Amino acid sequence: DLNLTYKQLAELNDALAKAETDRLSQEALYEETKTGNSEYLPEVVNDPAYQQMKEDYVKVKAQYDNLDARYGANYPEMKQAGAQVASLRHEMGALLSGIVLSIDSGYESSKKNEDLLRQRADIQKTRAAELNVIGAKYQALEKEVETNKTIYQNLLQKQKETEVTSGIRATNVHVIDYAFPPLKAYKTNILLNILVAAILGFVGGVLMAFGFEHFDRTIRDEEDLKKRLSIPFMGKIPRARRSDLEQLEMIVYTSPQSKISEAFRVLKTSVLYSLRDHRPPKALMVTSTQPLEGKTTISSNLALTMVQSGLKVILVDADLRRPSIHKVFLKDINGGPGLSSYLNGSSGMDNIVYKAGIDGLDIIPAGPIMPNPADLIDSKRMKDLIDNLVKKYDNVILDGIPVM
Questions:
Q1: Residues 138 and 249 grouped into a single domain
Q2: pTM, two decimal places
Q3: CB–CB of 263/236 below 8 Å?
């Protein structure tokens, strides 16, 4: 029963709260025993046997100190008093150890009791959740049964109505008008039909052409792109040959005379003079609509064209979900610190900058994969990093995350 289960769960939660309070109290006493001041514990102070023994010890110790001031160590009464002092000290130590051991045992017992109650409460919570699911299914089935009953009753009513209606013979059928045979043969106007068909075909074709043109959203060239997006057009990169695919990310460096390399140099010029005041942008991000569209190829070759122009460039792999810049420039480095290490505070900026092996080009790899890349990219440390890089380099290029 769900109500009984919730009642038992409430009782277990109350018992667990009391057990937690008891365990915290026992834990405080247990920690106090580790400080070396066990003599001042409440259990020790309130123990009548220990306090009586302590008073006896103080008296015997005073007698011993008095005799020690008057006689030597070999005096019989001195030996007897010393033996009494040692005996009382030993008994006090044994009693104190017993009290401390009792406190330790009480602490362990309270922990076990709390753990046991917590396990029982977790089991009861699981059972309550299962009963909730079963109860929801039962209510759904009960509602379905009621619905089916209603449908069944309606069908029975319809059947009865049909049986009654079928027994009634229709008598409202009448002849309104009689058909007559034609007086002469009917001939079609072929010329008129051809003319109408031609006009309708022409008008329909024109309308279909305009319709296809209006609703067609296919982008075939840069003019379609400009018209659809209404944003500045920077350039276009031709399709790579199959022989260039393996070195496509560095084709500007490996094949500087190719058509693709020339297209990247045109793109670089367009990007550097894209602002209204014709000042080159210091930092820019390359992104794409979805993965595998070539943003890493664009950002890598764009950085290489800027370096070939004599600029000092740093390429930042800001794609913290699927990083790939390190596969292009840092193939010998795997698992080192990178952008994510700086953004989470585990590394400084100097520790995440790597040489690409090409004069004028530095690399910041993505670093270890983190569970919250969007939060890291939107953090203040990211803004501070870009500000510092802009001061140090001519251009900062970020290989960003796809927008979808």
A1: no
A2: 0.48
A3: yes
Domain membership of residue 215 (yes or no) is no
Provide the domain limits for residue 323.
Answer: 235-399
Q: What is the DSSP letter of 132?
A: H
Contact in structure between 324 and 334 (CB atoms under 8 Å): no
Q: What is the number of structural domains in the chain?
A: 2
Count CB-CB contacts under 10 A for residue 59.
12
Which residues in the chain show pLDDT less than 70?
A: 1-2, 9, 26, 28-47, 49-53, 55-56, 64, 67-69, 71-75, 79, 81, 93-101, 166-173, 186-187, 214, 217, 219-221, 226, 230, 243, 275-278
Q: In this structure, what token pair is assigned to residue 129?
A: 């959740």
Q: What is the CATH number of the domain that holds 286?
A: 3.40.50.300
Q: Is residue 381 a contact partner of residue 342, using CB atoms and an 8 Å limit?
A: yes
CA atoms within 13 A on the CB side of 98: 9
Tell me 378's DSSP state: T
> Distance between CA 31 and CA 28 in Å, rounded?
5
204 neighbors 231 (Cβ within 8 angstroms): no
Q: Write down the number of H helices and E strands in the chain.
A: 13, 5
CA distance 280 to 147: 71
Tokens of 276: 């209204």
